Structure formats: structure tokens, C-alpha cells
Amino acid sequence: MKLYNSLTHTRDEFVTHEPGKVTMYTCGPTVYHFAHIGNLRSYIMEDVLEKYLNFAGYEVKRAMNITDVGHLTSDADTGEDKMLKGARREHKTVMEIAQFYTDAFFADCEKLHIKKPEIVVPATSYIDHFIEMVSKLLEKGYAYEAGGNIYFDTAKLDEYYVFNKQNQEDLAVGVRDGVEEDGNKRNKCDFVLWFTKSKFEDQELKWDSPWGVGYPGWHIECSAISLNTLGEYLDLHCGGIDNAFPHHTNEIAQSEAYLGHKWCSSWFHVLHLNTNDGKMSKSKGEFLTVSLLEEKGYDPLVYRFFCLQSHYRKALVFSYEGLDNARVSYDKLVARLAELKPAEPTACDLEAAKPLIDRFREAMDNDLNTAMGVTALYDVVKAKISDAAKLYAIAEMDEVLSCGLIAAADKKRAEAEEAAKAAEAEKAAAAAALAADPMAAEIEAAIKERADAKKAKNYARADEIRKELLEKGIVLVDTKDGTTWQKA
Ligand code: AMP
Ligand code: ZN
Fold first, then answer.
1. Does domain 2-270 have CATH number 3.40.50.620?
2. Which residue among 25, 52, 132, 313 is buried most deeply as judged by most CB within 10 Å?
3. CB of 152 closer than 8 Å to CB of 188
4. Within 13 A of 474's CA, how many CA atoms are on the CB side?
5. Which of the ligands is closest to the CA of residue 226?
6. Which CATH class is domain 290-409?
7. What is the pTM of this model?
């Protein structure tokens, strides 16, 4: 499989440290608020990546952190603590906020068919590991104490800006975020490993450490959680593109300084979902959440389908018009699948499905091209193969895309069958009611007499019979299969 690697800036052949096995780390949400659908775009694409690796035969071990401490409003360790801000907003404790929004995040994930990673670690449960890592970085001379905090010394590295070698000044801390610089830092891009000097007197979560009571920096959590759950050699690290700098850059700096060797080989970054007016926000404009889409009548899986129609390395603009188009395509696809007759696929069906599944594989092997993967679904629908083969191919692909296509088609088919059955039953009941009418025999005899009269070209008599019956409240209906009657 070819996968774009942000480290090399090329589409590389994906190679793992241990053949057949993938260790995969995902930066989890900061649980101070609901996730917006932009955040969830990243998690959808990472979910497809994990499922496709499984599909391709890899055994994937995946870990994710839950950021419940240390993430400040600026990724560059300045500004307000996001968790504290959330707690203040809702007049709750930080841990209450963390629990509530962690649950909300996974509820959204479930609705979007995003699988929960095998390992999920809240940062607050790993404090000892962070302290151990910071201690070793100090011991090895990669960290220093200043003004009460512990900082990583980026001057000790041969190379710090691993992802973006250009615009180093633009990326530098303080300049990028337009916030005050931290005078304790020896170098502009140094970052905090451990805060002992909280800027916030009312900082709720604090732990004892060799450097005084304090709390960890944001970046250290992902390094420590990854190293302790997935080992010293990581195959794949994921996140939204904004994570590349400074978060992932700092993760690499401290992990490799700690380990003394290269750490993660491939970096997968999802480009942002934006609105027409720019950046997606939790505080300005419409706060786009899964619940909001549901309130507006959208199935969350339609949003997933919308995301899959675009490549993860292209920025995507969200609009309701775009979502409506995705819904039309999704519904049409499901309707086509519902018309297919399910059956156990034979060896012949499997053989017929194979080239179509290979087309899907080809698309996904090409840097996870989900847009082409979705096109492969339509190729199946149009193919001249049996219904069983089509449904088999779609089910295989949807294991990865997870748009709930088979279940939606089954539901639609069952509803159509139910409606047809109800119509049939209604027709039969109406016929039975007529047959049970005490006048039925007399009317049937009149209908027969009218038919005979017509045959004998005695149309006057035929009309007379119709009139006589009408006077008794009976209407005759001539159809191509003969004459029926009903009450007027
Ligand atoms: P956070 O909860 O802020 O730590 O972000 C969770 C994930 O969402 C991270 O991987 C971010 O890089 C990613 N992310 C943030 N904003 C967007 C966006 N507009 N589109 C896609 N991913 C995003
Ligand atoms: Zn992270």
C-alpha cells in the first residue's frame, strides 16, 4: 500500500517494523467540549485507515489518548487551560467535564461507525509515566528547569522542524499564535514538559513531582502513552494537520531524545474540514456537531459518506448543500442495493466479485483514495454479475467504508416487502368483503348476463343492466381481466 508520509513528503510504500503487524497511534480529543464535525472528519479517515489495514491483512494494534489535562488554548503552551475553561463555563469540576465529553465523543463515534481504538488512555491516568519520561529527558540533558517549569531544549537536536522545513519563522512559537512569548524559554521553540508554576491559581488538577506540585505539558502525554502501550517503534501516527506543528514535532523531539533512536516511521495527517467562512470553531458561528446534524434530519452516516467522497489530503468545505448531495447519492445507492435479491454467494459469485473488490483495493492502496473507493461501489451496482455477487462485493467494501450500506438496504427491502404485503392483504380483504355481500350472487349473475348481452352485440341490454345495478348502489368496473363491482 502507498501512503503519503508527512515526514518524507512523498507517497511511500507502507512498511511496518514487524511484518504483518501495525502499531498505530491517534491523538485523541481534548474533552472540554463536544467534538465538532471537523474533528470527526479526522477520526473518520483514521478509522477507515485502520479498517483498510485490517482488510489488507495487517493485524492492527491502536492506541489513543484522551486529553483531560495540559492542553492550553494555544498549542504552544500559552493561553488558558482548555479543561479549566470548560469547567468554568459549565460550573463543574474538570473531571466531571472530562467524563461527560469523553462519553459524548464516543457516542458520536458510534453514530459515525468509528471503531473505538483497542487502547484508550486518559492522560490523567498516566502521570507517573510522564514524570518518568521528563526525568529521563532531564538526565540526558534534553530538558532544563526555568522559572519553575521544565522545558524541552530544542537546541540539543540536530533537526527540530521535521515536517516543515520552510517558514520556520512563521511556525515559531509566539509568532504563529499571536500570544505572549514565555521568557523562561532558552529557544523560541522550546516547549513545556511539566508545569510547576501554574499561571492559574485555581488549577484544579495537580500532582506531586520531583520538581514540585504541577501538571504535565500536552505534548508529553502522547509520547508517553504511545511508548508505553505500543512500544519503541511506532509504525503509524495520526492526527489532523494542525497537530503536525507544534504537537507532533514536539512528540518526535522528546520521544527520540528519550529513546535514542528513530521512533515513528509514518505520519498520517488529515486536512481540515472548513466552513465557507473559514476555520471550524466551537465558539464562533454555528457549532457543527453530530447532534446538530441529527436535529436537522441527517443520518450521521450520510456525513461519513460525505467525508469519504473526498480525499483526506484535501481540505474539505462543509455546506448543507454538499451534505444534501451526499444524502441523495447515499439514498440512491441504498435503493439500488435494496432491489437486489440476497442469497448465499456461490464460489462462482465470489469469483465474479473479485475483480470489483480488486478495483476497490487498488483505489485504497493508492494513498487511501476513498473517493475512488466510493466509485468502486457504483461499479459493483452497474456490473453484470449476480445479485448475490454484488451484495457480497459491497459488504466486503463496506467493512472498510462502514457506511451501513447493507443494513440500510436490508431495512429498505424489508420495508418494501412489508408495504407490498400490506397492499396485498388490503386487496384480499376488500375482495373477501365483496364476496361475503348477500347481493354477491345476484350481482355476479347480472355481470354474466351483461357479458353475454355484449357478446351478442345487445348493447342496449348491457347498458340497462349497468343502470339497474347502479340504482341498487352497485358500480361496475370493466378491466382487461373482466368486470368487477364495488359499492357506489
Ligand atoms: P482536539 O480535540 O482539539 O485535540 O482535536 C481533535 C482532533 O481533531 C485532532 O486530531 C485535530 O487535529 C483534529 N481537528 C481539529 N480541527 C479540525 C478540522 N477543522 N478538520 C479536521 N480535523 C480537525
Ligand atoms: Zn497527540
1. yes
2. 25
3. no
4. 21
5. 2
6. mainly alpha
7. 0.89
